[in-house]
# Entry
Amino acid sequence: MKTSTTVLGILGAAAAGAFLGVLFAPDKGSNTRKKITDKSKDYKDNLKGKVDGIISTITSNGKELVEEGKAKFNAAKEDFNTIKDEAKAVKTNY
# Structure
């Protein structure tokens, strides 16, 4: 089982536990609904922050990979042109 799956399972269980705890607490219905709404917003904001962080990491890593790929392509292109020029020189000498 992957660590990310385990962490998501634990977070889901914690959220469900908090929800059920608020739901069965002896309080007025309007107060309970407000607590549920507030907790939902907190969880949503927390999750959004984590997703934004993951997307930022993926984006920055992707940009680095693209730049590395461009550099390798340009190096290969230069090597090809050098070999091509050397081949032309050998051809003209014979």
User: Anything to note?
Assistant: The chain is about 90% helix and 0% strand.
